[in-house]
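cron nightly-structures :: item 1 of 1
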Amino acid sequence: MEVSIVIPCLNEADTLESCIQKARQALESNRLEGEIIVADNDSTDASPTIARTLGAIVVQIRERGYGNALKGGIAAARGTYIIMADADDSYDFLDIPRFVEKLRAGYELVQGCRLSAGGGTVLPGAMPFLHRVGNPIFSWIARRWLGVSVHDIHCGMRGFTRSLYADLDLQCQGMEFASEMILKATRHRAKITEIPITLYPDGRRSHVSHLRTFRDGLRHLRFFLLYSLR
């Protein structure tokens, strides 16, 4: 098994089918031996049924949290390379072969970059205002203070080797999981690169509240401060 595609999921019935179909197309069109894992974080909608119907492996993770869902899905993955991307249809799963190509070339972590500073594109309406302000700031801090080489540390589409993931021993249970991976990989002196991608508008009919976005931002800030003081 070369590639495991891990999709964290919490009530993503609006968009999950599109994501799985694109992931399947990426594997089949490029003759990649792989699997699709939906890490379901105790959804109450039809997400698990949709995933199983489309041939994905569903892993149930009861403990809530973005990091918890991803850790559960990655633990079940069998691939040498792991690609993670969100289930809201904001990332194009057809980009997966580009990540695999870099991993095959010897990189241990391949980070997607949505921000223009790294060549990426954010389509109109694709990123909430607080994220448009916060993501560049946090990424700049990570580059300036902590030696990170990428321009978009929060991008949820990335690829990495199974061996690097095992070495990093990631602990964060929430959204900070994404930052923790980049910071620890940098400290680990992993071979890291980034590729520009496009961020599309969230395809779900119900969106994350501004309050939750603000809380996530505060958690990221707290994590950065604690990590930089170590």
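cron nightly-structures :: done
Residues 210-228 form the longest helix (19 residues).
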